[in-house]
Design goal:
DNA-binding, 5 helices, about 55% helix, globular, three-stranded antiparallel sheet, homodimer, mainly alpha
Chain lengths: ~120, ~120
DNA sequence: GCCATATACTTTGCAACGCAAGGTATCTGG
DNA sequence: CCAGATACCTTGCGTTGCAAAGTATATGGC
């Protein structure tokens, strides 16, 4: 018996990058921090594991949407900070638009009262 | 060279089954018909190919969410009709709820004005 | 000093699923 | 008879979330 059916796995695909870019818009952050930050900001709905986050960040970096820099705090292990780039901002805008269109289309289909409304009956 | 990077591909995952169940709520339909029906009802946003649809339908059938029956029209090739089951109706309700929660969480994070609103500043 | 624990990053291998590409069979029209 | 539309099915691949395991540094208790 799963505490809360984590069947949402597939739902996350396609929005995780978008969500990450959004978080980095507020301020640069390091990976380990983002794991809990995502869970908090999405109220656990999009909780991800390290095995998901790091490859995801590498992809964003490859695409030039984020840039990195190592920083060594007074105490604790070194951190790799990620910040959003200009290109990343543009990508964020585009992908947000895409998400909204997608979301609206799905909602329109799900709408119980929709039922064709094409005119004919 | 992909004409338009099908980045939306990943977005579809997780909602396609839901959308299919929704369409079958209106009336039973056969596979080939659903390909164009989905495109029409979602204004092309969730357009899918046969290579996607059929395996998807098999999965739904395995899960007992839809049932099938062959029908041979007066003219044309035989058709395999899919209709939603009782279990399918329940699954639809649950998954719709899940979609709404997911959608709202994503929207809440994207919201430009959100910026923490935790109380502290 | 040593070891458990927490922090922080990385990698490997697996499974799910959309899709391109190809295949089969039936019917219709020229 | 054959081209094309209809309708269904299958194989193989790429992407990506995740479990699991590994590395390294710092801290506190003994």
């Amino acid at each position: 018996m799963t505490p809360t059916p984590p069947a949402d796995r597939e739902l996350k695909r396609g929005v995780l990058e978008l969500v990450l870019l959004r978080l980095l818009q507020d301020r640069p952050a390091y990976g380990y921090e983002l794991v809990s930050e995502i869970a908090r900001r999405t109220e656990g709905e999009l909780e991800i594991k390290e095995g998901t986050l790091y490859p995801l960040l590498y992809r964003l970096e490859e695409q030039g949407l984020v840039a990195t820099s190592w920083e060594t705090p007074e105490r604790g292990a070194p951190r790799k900070y990620y910040r959003i780039t200009e290109v990343g901002e543009q990508a964020f805008a585009e992908r947000t638009e895409r998400w909204r269109r997608f979301r609206d289309r799905v909602d329109a289909v799900l709408e119980p009262g929709a039922r064709e409304k094409k005119g004919e009956e």
